[in-house]
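During the no-cost extension, the postdoctoral fellow (Dr. R.K.) reprocessed legacy sequence entries with the updated structure-token encoder. One reprocessed record is reproduced below for audit purposes.
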Amino acid sequence: MPLGEWWRRYRPVHLSWHPRRWGAPRVHRWGGRAGPASGPWPVAINGAAATLIFRAVLATAAWAGAPPLNPELWLGTFFTADLPAAAVVGTVVMLAAGAGTAALYHALRPYLPEAPLAAGMRFGLGLWLVTGLIGFPVFAWLSPMVNNGLLLDPGAFGLGFGVLDAVILLLAYLVLGTALALGQALWMGAGR
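Re-encoded structure tokens follow.
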């Protein structure tokens, strides 16, 4: 066997879950087989893309006649009181949180036995429950803008903005989970 062919076949693989076995497929820590869509960057890009889709669903609140939902502004006001700068900072924080959410979904995916669509919807429902019960009340408690009366208190599940916004938040989280699941299944090839 020529040396080049031997090296391609038996070279050591970094970041693998299992020790290298002769002839075993290379499986990387971030899921899927070795290839262009393995590693942490596809997970982060999947999370950022799903976050943009999540944001697009939240934009429908204004079209439906409800108060607009601005999570970028909510997150950005923790860092600055300047609202245009808060929107930019909040967008960066939101995209980073989307990448973290994608990594969480990627880590939990082996424990969700359903097809990718159902697993994504279950994950999105779980995120909605956690952010609705814990995230929004903690945000209202810590936010200087809410405490000074400059932003509305979202309340549990966003009910402080009205029932329509709470329903749109639920739909947005379901779409977020579905986008994460489909992105992983289609683009990264790690679906079931």
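Residues 13-36 have pLDDT under 50 and may be disordered. Residues 1-30 form one domain. The remaining legacy entries will be reprocessed before the final report is submitted.
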